[in-house]
């Protein structure tokens, strides 16, 4: 085996369709915990970083995240999870992205 991630088990959280979650890409940092994201359904939304993830993970432009669109304002969403680079590689290899 090489020194890559071949021997390691990578745990990846997938979006839950029943909770209306989907993949998105962070496009532009707006400040005050707001980020413009491009969702995989083709809509650009204003994302708000939830308090639970705000203290734990730094989100940068280009990161892959999971978002939940708001039911009463479709142009806004909550960012609930950020993927690390090994997880993004795993998602691409298994054709989720």
Give an overview of the whole structure.
By secondary structure, the protein is mainly beta. It has a single domain (17-93), classed as OB fold (Dihydrolipoamide Acetyltransferase, E2P). 13% of the residues lie in helices and 36% in strands. A five-stranded mixed barrel has the order 1-2-3-5-4. It starts with 21 loop residues before the first strand and ends with a helix. The chain has two helices and five strands.
Summarize the structure.
The chain is 13% helix and 36% strand. The protein has 97 residues and is mainly β.
Using brief descriptors, characterize the structure shown:
about 100 residues; mainly beta; OB fold (Dihydrolipoamide Acetyltransferase, E2P); five-stranded mixed β-barrel
The top level CATH class name: Mainly Beta
CATH topology, by name, is OB fold (Dihydrolipoamide Acetyltransferase, E2P)
Low-pLDDT segments, ≥5 res: none
Q: Mean of residue pLDDT?
A: 87
Question: Describe the biggest sheet?
Answer: 5 strands, mixed, barrel
Percentage of helical residues? Answer: 10-25%
Structural class: mainly beta
Strand order in space, largest sheet: 1-2-3-5-4
Radius of gyration: 14 Å
What is the succession of H and E elements?
A: EEEHEEH
Strand tally, please? 5
Number of helices: 2
Distance between the termini: 26 Å
Fourth-tier CATH superfamily name: Nucleic acid-binding proteins
């Amino acid at each position: 085996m090489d020194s890559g991630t071949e021997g390691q088990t990578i745990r990846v959280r997938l979006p839950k369709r029943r909770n209306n979650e989907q993949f998105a890409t962070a496009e532009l940092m707006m400040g005050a915990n707001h980020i413009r994201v491009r969702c995989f359904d083709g809509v650009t939304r204003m994302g708000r970083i939830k308090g639970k993830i705000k203290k734990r993970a730094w989100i940068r432009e280009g990161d892959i995240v999971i978002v939940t669109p708001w039911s009463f304002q479709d142009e806004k969403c909550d960012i609930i999870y950020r993927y690390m680079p090994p997880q993004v590689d795993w998602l691409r290899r298994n054709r989720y992205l």
